[in-house]
Amino acid sequence: MAAVIFTGAQLLKQQGGFIGIAYVKTANYSTESKAYNLSALKRGTGGRSSFNGIVATVFGCGGFIGRYVCNRLGKNGSQLILPYRGDPYDVMRLKVCGDLGQVYFHPFDLRDEESIEKVCRYSNVVINLIGRDWETRNFSFDDVHVKGARLLAKVAKRSGVERFIHLSALNAEETPEAVILKGGSKFLASKWRGEQAVLEEFPEATIFRPADVYGQEDRFLRYYGHIWRRQATYLPLWKKGEETIKQPVFVSDLASGIMAALKDSDTAGKVYQAVGPKRYYLSELVDWFFRVMRKDKDWGYWRYDMRYDPIFQIRVTLTEKLRVGFPIGNLHWERVEREHVTDVVHSEVPTLEDLGVALTHMEDQVPWELKPYTYGLYQGLVDLEEPYTPPAPPTPVA
Ligand SMILES: NC(=O)c1ccc[n+]([C@@H]2O[C@H](COP(=O)([O-])OP(=O)(O)OC[C@H]3O[C@@H](n4cnc5c(N)ncnc54)[C@H](OP(=O)(O)O)[C@@H]3O)[C@@H](O)[C@H]2O)c1
């Protein structure tokens, strides 16, 4: 495929609104006016330097899960079309996911059908990782999870894409369980409607419903590690977290599941639950995270019931209302609501294990992920090289 060409409008790329759309419309990543069947050019043995016949457009590539998915795709010789919005520097580092000439970038707008069509026309696989945990001035949950997902599925179908993978969320329900917010999580309800919209446009789509996903730069472990989630050394949880059960999944396992689904055409039209191997009470899990971070009882850690702390509740409201861009520490009511929804795993719906993924256990991975949050690490108060007995792992729910 010819080199990436950003025709003319480089100077306009930072602009929003009318000028921004003009930029998207005039940009092109190929000099070819005709769509070739690139997958027919398959060659090599399937490693990074071969071409395995997959040309994948990854929407939401610049996000947390996107980085892992792109790495896996590049590693096995897929060609990557990476649509992005905003600054191209944010996604530029994904260039090294694949071999030379295998990774292409293209600006797009989730509301602009033409730009979506441009990035789907050469692909046989489309992966939709677009999602947002909070609503913004420009995009409601429905805009992102329902209308946006529907448009991607519709254009992919029209462009002759063979496989469409869509990321929803575990506990997505028409009327999700309400823990704190009246009517429950709007995020989860919109994810449920998004699944229906995608299946209406692309009935052979494969849907993944991930539980909380942890890994590098996640929004699960880092959420609890963040100073803004605590009241000094005290941690407020709804009903002390003793009535919420969670089953978090490791991001690499989710990426492995997506890769396995791509290889297996039997997964078309099916829904998969992406959950970890064990279930834990939220209270058990969070206590363990703090023990791992060496922020234990001696440090002042104490978990209490959020219901009796109006100051924390006011802080969540103010963080949500006064935010510029994103909420500090990911603290907002939608997040707090979802945090306390128990993970429901339906026995009749397949999981990552049905895709042959050997699931990672939290006790094997989390201590490494939480290392940067170790108490006193940057003040020289602890030496990670010194012998240390790791704290007891959390007790899973029987
Ligand atoms: N991470 C989890 O624990 C978890 C759990 C359950 C479900 N999921 C779902 O899995 C998917 C991927 O999650 P993630 O953790 O990788 O999310 P993420 O890190 O927040 O990344 C989301 C991606 O979506 C893009 N995006 C958001 N709104 C957009 C819009 N209006 N127009 C264009 N692009 C937009 C973002 O682009 P920008 O960078 O330009 O904003 C980013 O690339 C999402 O659908 C998420 O809801 C995640």
TrEMBL record:
Domain NAD-dependent epimerase/dehydratase residue range list: 57-272
Pfam families tied to this protein: Epimerase
GO cellular component, one term: mitochondrion
InterPro entries given in the database record: ComplexI_NDUFA9_subunit, Epimerase_deHydtase, NAD(P)-bd_dom_sf
GO terms for biological process, alphabetical: ubiquinone biosynthetic process
Complexes and interactors: Complex I is composed of 45 different subunits. This a component of the hydrophobic protein fraction. Interacts with BLOC1S1. Interacts with SLC2A4. Interacts with CLOCK. Interacts with RAB5IF.
This protein's name: NADH dehydrogenase [ubiquinone] 1 alpha subcomplex subunit 9, mitochondrial
Source species taxonomy: Eukaryota, Metazoa, Ecdysozoa, Arthropoda, Hexapoda
